[in-house]
Design brief:
The protein is α+β, with helices and mostly antiparallel strands. It is built from 2 helices and 4 strands; from the N terminus they run ββββαα. Helix 1 packs across helix 2. The radius of gyration is 16 Å and the shape is globular. The chain starts with a strand and ends in a 25-residue tail after the last helix.
């Protein structure tokens, strides 16, 4: 059984913190093809943080749950990669899930997706995606 992963799009960005740490982030939109021909999408994020020439932190994560619709996956990817505040790997899965729900709710013509009251939102965790 052979699975294939193909990079569809990539975005690099750099952020400078007040403390002088330079954050390099790379976002990638991937298409995974299954042995039976199914195609699914995921977003990955790699972070490397530098002070001068010293690597002080590195992290990576991938978030699936985008399903098989290429257009919806691209909308979520553009939102994450182009957010005003950078999306770090530790928050990637939560933000991708929330953005995918928003895209799905728009596609279904509903104002919002109903979620259980106990479900945490990104704002409750102290981070937020600001649309560009």
């Amino acid at each position: 059984m052979v699975y294939r992963r193909q990079l569809i799009a990539a975005t690099d960005r750099q952020e400078l913190s007040e403390e002088g740490t330079v954050y390099h982030l790379r976002y990638g939109l991937y298409q995974e093809t299954t042995p039976t021909g199914g195609q699914f999408y995921a977003i990955a994020c790699h972070l490397s943080a530098w002070r001068g020439k010293s690597l002080v932190r590195e992290d990576w994560d991938i978030a699936g749950g985008l399903g098989a619709d290429a257009r919806s996956a691209e909308v979520v990817y553009r939102t994450v990669a182009g957010a005003r505040d950078p999306v770090f790997p530790s928050h990637l899965a939560d933000i991708v899930r929330e953005q995918a729900e928003l895209v799905l709710s728009r596609d279904l013509g509903r104002a919002e997706v109903r979620r259980p009251k106990e479900a945490a939102t990104s704002a409750q965790h102290g981070y937020a995606v600001k649309l560009p």
